[in-house]
Amino acid sequence: MNIKILLVEDQKLMRIGIKSLFNDYPEMEVIGEAVNGKEAIEKAKLIKPDIVLMDIGLPDISGIDAAKQILEYNNNIKIIMLTSHINEQELNASFVSGANAYVIKDINTDFLMSVIKMVKAGAMWLDPKVVPFIRDKHSGIIPSRQLSRSTFRQNHSNLTQREYEVLKLVVDGQSNSQIAKTLTISEHTAKAHVCNIIQKLVVDDRTQAAVKALREGLV
After folding, report:
1. CATH code given to domain 149-215
2. What are phi and psi of 73, to 5 degrees?
3. Mean pLDDT of 67-78
4. How far apart are CA 160 and CA 90, in angstroms?
């Protein structure tokens, strides 16, 4: 069964661009679009999407307020917040509103599709680019108790030193080609390391590997 998506974005070109991303992913379908918060609330009630891709900065009410009202009506709907910048207040308010994910708009397309699938399955997700920011700000979104690097190594001792280095770059949101440049290795080798990490951490993709590393305190 397709994942049904309501896309909420006030900028026409951005909305068209985001919608076009789904052309190569037949298991997902944009069944509705909204250009402001009030329209998003009305359409969510009418078409009952699985996922709402919600821009935070809307021209009437904010995406955060719209999310609250949508979830008050139907808390089975999952909300993924989209933003072009990191704002501590909006970040906290997004999760307080009941949102399931907070995503920076320059996210890799495959990464976004993986996030949608994870959220549909009940997971919560935080863009890795936000993690250093919120830790520096002590916002409390990430629990203060983290496993030490040595404890993480004990739990995942089958990862090599190079695989740890690659995993940290995956958490930072780097693509295989970016990892290759950072570590001065071939893109083929970088891809092989990522595949090994996914297998060893017993996850389905690089997004889940990043989430697991964050949860267990590697970064």
Report:
1. 1.10.10.10
2. -80, -40
3. 94
4. 38
pTM of the predicted protein model:
0.65
Which residue's structure tokens are 């918060």? 37
Domain regions of the chain by residue span: 3-137, 149-215
What is the residue-wise DSSP string for 25-43? -TTEEEEEEESSHHHHHHH
The pLDDT value given to residue 93: 87
| pLDDT, tens digit, 9 for 90 and up, residues 75-132 | 999 999 999 888 778 888 888 888 989 999 988 888 899 889 988 988 778 887 776 6
C-alpha count within 13 angstroms, C-beta hemisphere, residue 130: 27
SS3 87: coil
DSSP H helices in the chain: 12-20, 37-47, 63-73, 88-96, 109-120, 131-137, 149-155, 161-171, 176-183, 187-200, 206-215
CA–CA separation, 61 and 68 (whole Å):
11
Sign of CA dihedral 184, 187, 191, 192: negative
Domain 3-137 falls under CATH 3.40.50.2300 = yes
Taking CA atoms, 24 is separated from 21, 54, 83, 167, in Å, by 7, 21, 23, 27
Most confident range (mean pLDDT) of 87-91, 139-143, 211-215 is 87-91
pLDDT in tens, 152-175: 455 555 788 899 899 988 887 788
The pair of structure tokens assigned to 126 is 């935080």
